[in-house]
Automatic annotation (TrEMBL):
Organism: Chlorobaculum limnaeum
Keyword Coiled coil in annotation: yes
InterPro entries: Beta-barrel_RND_2, BSH_CzcB-like, RND_pump_MFP, YknX-like_C
YknX-like C-terminal permuted SH3-like domain boundaries: 283-350
Domain CzcB-like barrel-sandwich hybrid stretches: 71-193
Gene Ontology CC: one annotated term: efflux pump complex
Record-level Gene Ontology MF annotations: efflux transmembrane transporter activity
Record protein name field: Uncharacterized protein
Amino acid sequence: MKHRNRIIALVVLVAVAAVSFLFSGKKPDAPGRKQSQPSAMAIAVSVEAASVAAVRDSLSVVALVDAWRDVDIHAETSGIVRSVSSEVGDRKGAGQPLLRVDDEVAASALRKARVNRELARRDFERYDRLQREGAVAISNFEAVKLRLEDAEADLVAARRRVEDTAIKAPFAGVVTSRLVEVGDLVQPGMKVANMVDLSKLKIVSSIPEKQVASIAEGMVVQVTTDVWPGKVFLAKVLSVSAKSSRDHTYRVESAMENPKETPFRAGMFARTAFVGSSSRQALLIPRRALTGSIAAPEVFVVTGGKARLRKIVAGAEYGSHIEVLQGLAAGDVVVVSGQSDLDDGSPVTVSQGEAGR
């Protein structure tokens, strides 16, 4: 029994010695020692300096191509359509017939008006001789004269009614619609066709109220369209509306000859560029330097190795650059790449090759 107790005591001593040995290898931290904190890492960015350059004010907007003249043609008499001499797409010269209405009644009235006018003329000539000879009273002669004038007026009206039975093209152009067929009954004022004159064009643009003051009559306009890519056409401002539409834009019409090799059609979309006649100095930065929206633009300006967020007032765009009206000065270095990783006051390092720009 005593031997067994000795063995147990020996095992306990060995275990205690082993634990003491393991803990003896660890050294306590020196009093007052602090753990080191990692320093803030500088963020690599690309920069470019704000610079002053000569610019020419321009404005580019979407426009609509209109015909020089676009006219609805109406009947001026009543009757049955007897013949049609126009189809959609036909080119008609000024005065050429488009359709003809039954003219039997009108032609009969014209013949009667001619007879009445001839009778009135003969009576006038006879009474004129008698009046000079003193054979008739002056009042009788004047009554015959008035009957002649009345007969001549009736003849003019009858001739016009016959002419109205032939509905003609008011100008040289293209028929875009015909709304009646042979046998249809037309009435005065009824629309029967439409024609457009595409020898010249009206380019209609809607200009915002902030820019309309820079648009003047006679100003040269550059016109482009996706229908004829790569081609630039020239127009001149014809008129600027004095009244805005509900969306506070002003209608501007520009006149342009319709090129024969690359013809435009009414209703096409185009883009108009209004270019100023003189240049001016403006402070520019790359468009990609902006953070946020164009309505509330901000940029990061690098000063003393840190990026500082600064609000600016942006002006017009010129290609890949934008004008700065307030908030920057020439020479200020703005971040153009890497803004997404920055906060106001973040330390930065300029990428190799960008520092000298």
